[in-house]
Structure formats: C-alpha cells, structure tokens
Amino acid sequence: MLPSILLLFPLLVAATSGFHVLERRDSAPAGFTRIGSPQEDQVLSLRLALTQGNITGLHDTVYAISTPGNSRYGNYLTREEVTEFVAPSSETLSSVNSWLASNNLTASPITTARDWLLVNMTVSQANALLVADFSTFQSDATNETVIRTLSYSVPAILKSSIEWVHPTISFPQAKSSRPPSSLKRPTTAASAQPPASSVSADCRMNSSWTPVCLQELYGIPSTPAKPTTDLFGVSGFDNDFANLRDLQTFLEIYRPDMNPNTTFGLITLDGGLNNQLPGGAGLTGNPDTQYAVGLTNGVPVTFISTGTLPDDLLVEMLDQANYLVSLENPPRTILNTETPQLESLLSSPQIAISMCNAYAQLAARGVSYIVQTNIWGAGSVPIPDCKSFDASFPATCPFVTAVGATEFNNDEPEEVASQFSGGGFSDLFKRPKYQDSAVSGYLKATDNTDSSAFNVSGRAIPDVAAIAAISWIFDGGVVDFLEATEYSATIFASIVALLNNERIAAGKPGLGFLNPLIYSNGDAFNDMKTGSNPGCNTPGFNSTVGWDPVTGFGSPSYPRLQDVCSKL
Ligand SMILES: *[C@@H]1O[C@H](CO)[C@@H](O)[C@H](O)[C@H]1NC(C)=O
Ligand SMILES: *[C@@H]1O[C@H](CO)[C@@H](O)[C@H](O)[C@H]1NC(C)=O
Ligand SMILES: *[C@@H]1O[C@H](CO)[C@@H](O)[C@H](O)[C@H]1NC(C)=O
Ligand SMILES: *[C@@H]1O[C@H](CO)[C@@H](O)[C@H](O)[C@H]1NC(C)=O
Ligand SMILES: *[C@@H]1O[C@H](CO)[C@@H](O)[C@H](O)[C@H]1NC(C)=O
Ligand SMILES: *[C@@H]1O[C@H](CO)[C@@H](O)[C@H](O)[C@H]1NC(C)=O
Ligand SMILES: *[C@@H]1O[C@H](CO)[C@@H](O)[C@H](O)[C@H]1NC(C)=O
Ligand SMILES: *[C@@H]1O[C@H](CO)[C@@H](O)[C@H](O)[C@H]1NC(C)=O
Question: Where is the composition biased (Low complexity) (predicted)?
C-alpha cells in the first residue's frame, strides 16, 4: 500500500466549524504545478454527486438477475427501474437544493435520476461555498492548465447527502502512450520445427493473430450472424477515432469473405466526433472497430465517441456510462479499452466508486461491459519505486468483465499466459461473492497470501484472457504486429457480442453482466496453466490450473460457451 493513497481518502476532520471536509490531498500530483489563481469571476461548472437512494439494493439486484439458476436470471431492469434505485431521497434533494438556493445558485440535473447535479458558479462563489481554494495548475507535460482545489468542504448537515464534487481534487490523468517497443513480433528461427499442436502452423508461426486465425484458435464462426437490432458498442474517448476507410482496407485484406463495405454506426456525447481526416484515426478506436466488425460478421457495431468536454478522462467514462444507462435500448455488449488507471494513481477513490456504481447500473440494464487489465503484469511500470502490486481501474470494478493477455509462442504447442498480462487484487473494491471460491482456491493452492504485496480481500482480476497480438490498419497501412491487453479485450468482447446476438436472435434475453456466468462455467475456457506476470521487481503471480490472477479462467472456447448459453 502506498502511503499516498491514504492521504486521498476523505478525512473526517472539519475545516471550519459547521463544515465537513469531503475530500482533500496534501499537494497536486506529480506533473502539475500551481501557477496562480484564476479570475474571481471565472465561471466553473461543478458536478455534485448526490448520495444514491439504494445502491446496495441495486447491487443485490444485479447479482440476482445475472446469476444463472436464480429465478430472476435475465430479468433486466428498465431505465425507470434503475432510476428508482439510484435516485437520491427527497430529503437529500431538498436539503441540497435549499443550500444552493440560499447561496443564490440553481442546479440542473445531469441524469434523470437526479443523482448528478450541475451548478455554475464563479470561482469566488465556489471558494466561499465549498471552503476551497480553487487555483490554476499547469501540466508539466503539456502546459495545459486546469482549475482545481486541494481540499473542499460542505456544510456538516449535508455530509451524507453529497458524495463528492468535480472538478476539485481530481486531476486529469495523461493517457499512457502505446505499449513499449519491446512488444515486437518475436523472431522465428527459419529452421524452427513447431511442435504438434491443434492450431495450424500458419497461424502459430505468424504470432500476429488475424481474424481467420482467431476463428481457428477459438472456434469463432465465420458465417454471418443472424440479423438483429442489438448493438455491439465500441468506445472511443479523448478524440480517438475509428476510420471507415481503414476498416474497409482491413476487411479487404483480412476478411475477403465479408462485404468490405460493412461499416459501423456512431453515437456521440460530450462533444464527441468521428473525424475521418487523414491522420485523424486513433490508436484505440481504429483497431477495436476493425476487429469488432471483422470478428462478428454482421453484428451491428456502433462506435461510441465521448468528447473532451469534461477535462478528465475518468469523467468522460462516467458520462459515457450514465448516458448509456439512460438509453431505452443500450447496446448489449460494450467494449472499453481506454488506458486503464492504476488504483494508487487515482486522484480520488470517489470517482472510481461512482464509476463502478454506474457500471452496476449498466449491469442492471443487461449490458455486458468488457475492459482490459493492463500491460504491466502484476506490478506497475509507471511507478519506479513500486513496493506493492497495483491493480488497474476500471478492471477492478466488480461489475465489469476484465480481460488479461495470452500469447502463442511458436515453440510451444498451446496458448500460454502473456508476461504482460495485468492481474492482481483491488484495494478499493472487496472481493465479490461470485469469485470467492475461485480466488480463495487459488490463494490456498499457491499458499500465496503475502498481504504486504497485495490485498487478499480485494476484487481479483482478470476474469478471463485472450490473445493480445494482432495486426491492423492505420492510415491506410498495415500495422504489422502489436501486443496489448486492449486487443485481448476486443477479441473477447467480439465473442460476447456474437453470443449475445445469438440469444437475442433466438428471442432470449442477452447475457448481461457476465461474471457470475463465467465463474460458474470455468470449463468453457481454455485454462492457461503455466506462465506468470512479473512486475514491481518481483516474479508476480503464477498461472495455475483453474482461475489465477494472470489469465483468470483462460481464453474463450466459442463452441463451449455457445453450449453453456444454449442451456440458460
Ligand atoms: C433497496 O432495494 C432492496 C432490493 O430491491 C429492497 O429489498 C429494499 O427494501 C430497498 N431499500 C430501500 C430503503 O428502499
Ligand atoms: C443573494 O441575492 C440577494 C439579492 O440579490 C442578495 O441580497 C444576497 O446577498 C445574495 N446572497 C448570497 C449568499 O450571495
Ligand atoms: C452552466 O454553464 C454551461 C457552460 O457555460 C452551460 O452550458 C450550462 O447551460 C450552464 N448550466 C446552468 C445550470 O446554468
Ligand atoms: C511549455 O512551455 C515551455 C515554456 O514556454 C516551452 O518551452 C515548452 O516547449 C512547452 N511545452 C509544450 C509541450 O508545449
Ligand atoms: C500473418 O501476418 C501477416 C501480417 O500481419 C498477414 O498479412 C497474414 O495474413 C498472416 N497470416 C495468417 C495465416 O494469418
Ligand atoms: C461497395 O460499395 C461500392 C461503392 O458504393 C460499390 O461499388 C460496391 O459494389 C460495393 N461492394 C459490395 C460487395 O457490395
Ligand atoms: C484491502 O481491501 C479492503 C476491501 O476492499 C479494504 O477495505 C482495505 O482498506 C484494503 N487494505 C489495504 C491495505 O489497502
Ligand atoms: C511460481 O512458480 C515458480 C516455479 O514453479 C515457483 O518457484 C514459485 O515459488 C511460484 N511462485 C508463487 C508466488 O507461487
């Protein structure tokens, strides 16, 4: 546990008599410098997260409707039913609104449930209202400035009504760059004789997994999916775009059996775009849409582009989740491969808790939400003096499905764990019941309970894994080989989209939140029994028989999953 985390938790200390400090931090995070005070009359748009009425009831409901065998399995909630769980109590709403009114301020709700309010006020009003010191901070890396405060309070009588306020102590996080250059196509000795394997030498020797090879490896059908209106949503954030022409080239090269004009739809929010100018394509949206379309052959894919109106990537993700919850028919499968954030680097745990509760709402709506772990193994490359393992968010949220990485070395007969596969234990979220037996079984079998390096009671990741090395098209040219857990999540989500599509086409409910199903059907996955994910100057975790914090239950077998789904 890094000491800095402790400082980020709200301290139960009053700043001024009658006020309650909601959140504080000692200093700006590394990479930001305070350069002065903003104009007193500059207007800030502050978001207030109000205490949701019955979040525990929502969580319990999600587990009930997502657990096969439960009498309520598949009875997903309407948006109105979700709203009933998360709407703040009338006392909460009236006390917050009268506090604002007594300060001549009015709030407008951001969500139908009114659990999020937006209030515009000047810097001087905000400083007085929240006992804050809003200042201008500059990013050393980009020179961009943001207005933040290191501490803020609300009247003590409102401390159980307001959970947090944004933007305050949470600083934007830089998007990490691409995987390091060490993730290059392994060189194959010309004379290498591949060992016997169920997978063709063409695919194994190539190390880059094209759609045709993934079909072979996981038994993914190549035939067109039955037409339904259910969408497969692929997320893009921060001006990361998906290019239509690159998709066409991709299909021409890698799916010659498909119509190269197959395309994707577009949903935008927060000023999101899908810029098609040369050089406008993104390093996430582009490969993700190419594989989503190329692996699902006929499932309607839609690109969900969230813009940069909130000056924080995590708030963009929160907006995306709140937006999708509010749709009458949200896409049933959603892929989000945006760069994960290490839990210890989150500016405020509140933002992760709010986001995870938004993912719980999507789970309640029957959405399968799929994310990657990270490419830093059990540790965390970005923290040089790392002393403990650091799991990454949003993978650690118990209501999403987290995908780790595997690889296929040409000198081995089977798929194995990738040493880059992010895995480990959360410090923020408790271990959910659905994984209790799998995770405690792992801990017991490996006798690995070194709680100084990781939190044995935390939510463990990943849940599953898939191949991480693919080729795709960028700006018209082939990106020959890249390996990242992002691609593992894309491949897994494509399989889920196909399975969801089959269920919908058969008039059945979709699979919804997947984890209870996954943890009760571990044998529908190809178990990785060897390999490890070194990190934080340690050997990391070992991959073992059954679930492990390197590859979860392993990689998907389409035929076995299809069989499981047909019996639900
Ligand atoms: C919260 O939701 C649960 C599950 O639906 C329900 O049993 C409980 O009565 C609710 N609690 C309140 C205070 O509404
Ligand atoms: C609110 O507005 C009224 C009328 O303009 C003014 O008298 C009062 O001082 C204001 N109160 C605050 C807290 O700004
Ligand atoms: C707050 O300001 C934003 C940006 O100027 C504006 O779009 C919004 O309508 C305002 N909201 C309220 C409640 O005044
Ligand atoms: C930031 O500003 C400094 C000083 O003006 C300049 O030297 C530097 O190039 C700028 N960095 C970026 C990323 O714009
Ligand atoms: C091997 O990789 C290359 C480059 O990505 C690709 O063009 C080729 O189709 C791949 N071969 C197979 C069998 O997938
Ligand atoms: C793809 O679109 C182009 C241009 O509209 C058209 O000429 C071509 O026939 C289409 N191809 C297929 C296979 O539908
Ligand atoms: C371990 O996880 C639990 C539950 O998530 C949490 O309450 C506790 O603070 C964590 N411990 C440490 C040392 O982070
Ligand atoms: C991982 O496996 C290696 C080799 O089998 C063994 O030496 C090591 O103790 C194992 N590590 C853990 C944490 O179980």
Answer: 175-201
